[in-house]
Amino acid sequence: MARVLGFLLLLVLFFHIAMASDPSPLQDFCVADPNSQVSVNGFACKNPNLVQANDFYFGGLRTKGNTSNAVGSKVSLVSVEQLPGLNTLGISMARVDYEPWGLNPPHVHTRATELFTVLEGTIEVGFVTSNPENRFITKVLQKGDVFVFPKRLVHFQRNIGNTNALAVSTLSSQNPGIVTIANAVFGSKPDISTDILAKAFQTSDHVVENLQLKF
Ligand SMILES: *[C@@H]1O[C@H](CO)[C@@H](O)[C@H](O)[C@H]1NC(C)=O
Asked: How wide is the angle at C-alpha 17 spanned by C-alphas 11 and 19, nearest 5°?
């Protein structure tokens, strides 16, 4: 009996932990105060009496992001850094612009599930499930279509049209965290040893050095 109860308790604890996410707010809002000396998980709250409408506003998405870069896409993130009113609310968003055939390269969000909506163009999306299956799940999306990238899985998007594409993402954290795989692996500071990456990727030091130069 004690064993059964112990097991049930473990189960309850496990599911409690498994459902953890950004904390639920204990007040109407907690506008981030970046100047506070108090260290908390997130940001300390600005005095609510001093809060202004602009603390809940971000006007920086009116214009197209600059896609003149190696991958031909630009993510304009609106997280708690850009919009202090998002603090403790467990949500953020991004505008994503793509040149023709532009790619938002494989990356993960360490803290967020992403809900992706195509506003203009035709976009190929995909994500890969965890080991050992590493199943690749992919789809071509049209304007108006919605796709979800589950939290922490490697995913990408590519514009497969000859015109610009535009998408909007919502993310289930005020600070979703972005790790772009190629940049993290081949562009770390300082470099991961070439021989480590050569063995991990089952290739030569020369190939790894070339990749490290690019990132
Ligand atoms: C876009 O980015 C490129 C590369 O960094 C830069 O040369 C160019 O001036 C930028 N364009 C605009 C309109 O800011």
From this structure: 105
pLDDT averaged over every residue in the chain = 92
pTM over 0.85: yes
**Residue spans per domain, the chain:** 70-177, 179-215
Query: pLDDT digits over 70-96, tens only?
Result: 999 999 999 999 999 999 999 999 999
CA-nearest residue for atom 7, ligand 1, is 68
CB-ligand 1 contact for 68 (6 Å cutoff): yes
CA nearest ligand 1 atom 4, residue: 68
Q: What is the CATH number of domain 70-177?
A: 2.60.120.10
